[in-house]
Amino acid sequence: MHPRLVLGGSLLLNALLLATLHAQTHAVESPAPVTRALAVYEWTGDLAHPTAARLIPVSLFINGHLEDAGVYLARPIPFTLQPGTLYSIEHSGQTLELQSADYLPTRSGDNTHRAWVGFGHLLTAAEAAAAASAQTSTTPPTISAIDDISDAPPVLRRSHPISKAKHKKADQQPGYVTPPATPLNEDPDRPTLHRGIPANADVTPQLATLPPDLHQAAAVSDAANRAPQTFTRPWANATERAQTLHSVEALALAPLAHYIAFNNLTSASLATPALTLTNEQLSAYTLTDGGPPTFIFTTESPLTTGGPVYLTLIAEPGPSATLHPVLFSITDATHLDRTPWFRLVDAVDPDATHRASLLFELRSQSTRQFALYTLTDGEVRQTLLTTPLE
């Protein structure tokens, strides 16, 4: 007989009974609804003081699924581009406050689209801290609220949230007018009308073109006050990065050579044994907690005429730790309308699940779109494609 073991068994039995009773009386709360917008912030110059900038809406996670943020509730301005909406620039931690929105008529085939873009300014640290402390409602509007969005509660972070309780209290009080103590024309504080933008306003100029020095970053607006999250995987050391770069270069050379030969293109490096690779970019991410690393490699191979060949490769380690390709995208300047150029923006979390998707810009000959891709068990799936931008 072991009294200690018997005592332990009785304690375990009591714990199980208490757990059963607790399970019978404990009510599990449903998770709070997520309303989260994803956009791409584009700028020229220094990010701290852009020479010109714009915000392109990408996705809106609302009512449990993804929507094209550029067209959702565009009556007349899309839901995600309402003035006063705040966006967090993920990697820099800066906060953008939207001030206006405009649309660009674009054509995709025989169809004409209205592609919306937003404009605003970056807040100072003090302004961003004040805005972060003022949270709006987290209840998303239902589909029945689409016909009258003026009654729908705001669901993205706003710089000046409005309290319905204050409105209700004010509506119950009688209205009255107090006559001015002095004639209106003699009042030095009387309001006046002006054209244009005040000289002292902190406004970032609007970016209207596609310049060669364009910079891009993911931006997020969320109804909840969530901390910015990045999925960038740091390199263990310079040797690991060099070895990974060598591996992805080896994976890229054979498909590049096949593409050039199949399309009867002339490589600018025919005199050398191997193709020339330029503008190489290698990014490493961890898309899920504890998941394998994901590597995105982009490069160009010059041609004698017609511009370069563009290659984008997504690779992950296999069972033997050897990198294997998950996605290949190859195109060239003369075939962009057939296959767009995959340009990586970042790894992002569009639905606040702490699982990242890959955000790409798909650039064609005369239009471009943004797309989200998820990786599951070595397979790539497109989850969203935006309206074309001219």
Write a structural description:
There is one protein chain. The chain is of the alpha+beta class. It has helices spanning 3-25, 125-132, 164-171, 238-262; strands at residues 36-46, 49-62, 65-68, 86-89, 95-108, 111-122, 215-222, 278-286, 293-301, 309-317, 323-332, 341-348, 357-363, 368-376, 379-385. The protein folds into two domains: 36-163 and 201-222, no CATH class; 238-348 and 356-385, no CATH class. It has a seven-stranded antiparallel beta sheet with strand order 3-2-1-7-4-5-6. A four-stranded antiparallel beta sheet has the order 8-9-10-11, covered by helices on one side. Strands 12-13-14-15 form a four-stranded antiparallel beta sheet, with no helix packed on it. A hairpin with a 4-residue loop joins strand 13 and strand 14. The chain is globular. The N and C termini lie far apart (83 Å). Mean pLDDT is 79; it is low at 1-30, 136-154, 161-179 and 190-201.
What topology emerges from the helices and strands here?
Layout: H1 3-25, E1 36-46, E2 49-62, E3 65-68, E4 86-89, E5 95-108, E6 111-122, H2 125-132, H3 164-171, E7 215-222, H4 238-262, E8 278-286, E9 293-301, E10 309-317, E11 323-332, E12 341-348, E13 357-363, E14 368-376, E15 379-385
Antiparallel strand pairs: 1-2, 1-7, 2-3, 4-5, 4-7, 5-6, 8-9, 9-10, 10-11, 12-13, 13-14, 14-15
